[in-house]
Write a structure and sequence with these properties.
This is adenine phosphoribosyltransferase. The longest helix is centred in the first third of the chain and has 12 residues, at 40-51. The chain has six helices and nine strands. Helices cover 29% and strands 27% of the residues. The chain is α/β, with parallel strands linked by helices.
Length: 191
């Protein structure tokens, strides 16, 4: 798809066709949404679709998850005119942090960190990541926000798979993603 072409009919998720499949093997995510970010209308429409369910909701800050969640999260924060908080993989913050272990989509055990001075009790945080596959990374971010006294106002990602972890998140938090229901089975089965 041409990175400048804008289709005449832009239904929700039209931009998903811009994503590229994994060609590097099993240690990488199965789809790469980063090409979607290169297309100005696709990025705008993706953000509009992600944020639409939260219109009128109280959101004090947007937090993006390391690393690709930084792109969508910062764009969402700018759109909402809110501050942006980076949820980092361990070892990247030089300030006081709170840490949470998690297992990522590839099954690797990792550690997520959040600065302790950014969240005050009751602060309503919209958590944003590029993808929720197994839910481990997002759940670690949720646990950090809540441990520091924040309230998870919602969870947004381009895709939220119907994995056990994805379902756990969707049952407990207001969620938004860009995959139309008719396409969800293809995303859940990685085809």
């Amino acid at each position: 798809m041409d990175l400048c072409h804008v289709p005449a009919a832009r239904e929700k998720g039209w931009y998903l066709a811009l994503m590229a499949p994994n060609v590097k093997g099993p240690n990488y995510a199965w789809l790469d949404p980063s090409r979607l970010y290169c297309h100005p209308q696709a990025l705008q429409d993706c953000l509009a679709d992600l944020l639409q369910p939260f219109q009128g909701d109280a959101i004090d800050m947007v937090a993006g998850i390391d690393a690709m969640g930084f792109i969508l999260g910062a764009a969402a924060a700018a759109t909402l005119r809110k501050g942006f908080l980076a949820v980092r993989k361990a070892g990247h913050l030089c300030v006081q942090t709170e840490a949470q272990p998690y297992r990522d989509y590839s099954g690797q055990q990792k550690l997520m960190e959040l600065r302790t001075d950014a969240i005050s009790p009751g602060l309503r945080i919209l958590l944003v990541d590029q993808w929720v596959e197994t839910g481990g990374t997002m759940r670690a971010a949720i646990e950090l926000v809540e441990r520091l006294g924040g309230v998870v106002a919602g969870v947004a990602a381009i895709c939220m798979e119907n994995s056990e972890g994805g379902k756990w998140i969707q049952e407990r938090y207001k969620c938004s993603h860009c995959v139309p229901p008719r396409l969800q089975p293809r995303f859940d089965q990685h085809r």
